[in-house]
Amino acid sequence: MANNLIKFLTEADGFVSGQEIADKLGISRNSVWKAVNKARKSGFEIEAVPNRGYRVVSREDVFCEEELRDVMKTKWLGAGDNLVFMKTVDSTNTECKRRSENGAGNGLLVITDSQTSGKGRRGREWKTPEGTNVAMSYLLKPDFIPDIAPMLTLVMAMAAAKGIAEVTGLDVKIKWPNDIVINGKKVVGILTEMALEEDTISYVIIGTGINVNTTEFPEEISKTATSLYIEAGNKKISRAKIAAASALAFEEYYAKFQETEDLSALEDEYNAICVNVGRRVRVLDPKGEYEADSKGINSKGELMVTKDDGTSVNVYAGEVSVRGVYGYT
Fold it and tell me: Residue 76 CB: number of other CB atoms within 10 A?
């Protein structure tokens, strides 16, 4: 009901009387009042003036199921029943697992306003306080071999980068393999988890946390983390639009990935925004640390580097980590 109300008010030119809304939607005046209050609780700023009616004043950062459905343009990923919005949840990745065990299918997208036990890489906590960021997870049930599933993390990185750039106009980069950075600071975290049954993928879950409207960070990460709000000059960004644009981009990139079962159709676009390309990097290998020149990724998502002795090495994300010697701005 609130969704229909917002759609009607948004399309209207100016104020609309309560009676006109009731007639249009086929509900009572009391139901109109309840729908207005529900929409306000979701974040819509609705002005009410006696003898004039209602109008939507602002939808700058409305983050609710109604707004997400309004801006989501995907065909199957997060479309229809595949979109689940939760005001709060322990973890969107964990919620995807629960729903998968209860029969949820391919393409489920779980989005929340707040995570109480969000997951980061290496068991770290990823905080998602209410009213600030985007936390969302994709449930995929592909039929390809498990060995290529880790490349989906890079596909998601490309999608998040594209979605953010389209909505904000900011210069968004990827630090290999999947950190999204703006002006040298991290703005997105991605965690991919996979479950196997014998040698077959049961599901892949890709969790994505985007710092959207965070205004400040704890001192210990303030030099390495940022938000879209900060980078946009203290301007609020629509979280619903960020989530929708990222999902649409992922749907596009995932289709290409499924066709080739590698990154051959995506590597040029990835390398175009990868900050490691053409840079001096330090490779932290279990066999020994060394510096090298980065050439970009190959079709397997490996970072191709050339050591000082001329030796070419393909660095695999699951085995080593790479840090820019002079930062990664």
Answer: 13
- Crossing angle for the helix pair 29-41 and 2-11, nearest 10 degrees? 90
Integer Cα distance of 294 and 307 in angstroms: 9
Q: Which domains does the chain have, with CATH numbers?
A: 2-58 (1.10.10.10), 65-272 (3.30.930.10), 280-324 (2.30.30.100)
Q: Is 32 helix (H, G, I), strand (E, B) or coil?
A: helix
**Burial environment of residue 3 by CB neighbours within 10 A (0 to 12, 13 to 18, 19 or more):** middle
| Residue 20 CA neighbour count, 13 Å, CB half | 12
Which residues contact residue 49 at a Cβ distance below 8 angstroms, ignoring those fewer than 6 apart?
Answer: 15
Question: pLDDT for 83-130, tens place per residue?
Answer: 999 999 999 999 999 999 999 999 999 999 999 876 665 556 666 778
Cis peptide before 177 (omega within 30 of 0): yes
Q: What are phi and psi of 198, to 5 degrees?
A: 60, -115
Assigned token pair, 220? 């210990």
Name the β-bridge partners of 204: 140, 194
pTM of the model: 0.83
Task: Find, among 208, 240, 249, 209, the residue nearest to 227 by Cα.
Answer: 209
CA dist., res. 322 & res. 329, Å (int): 14
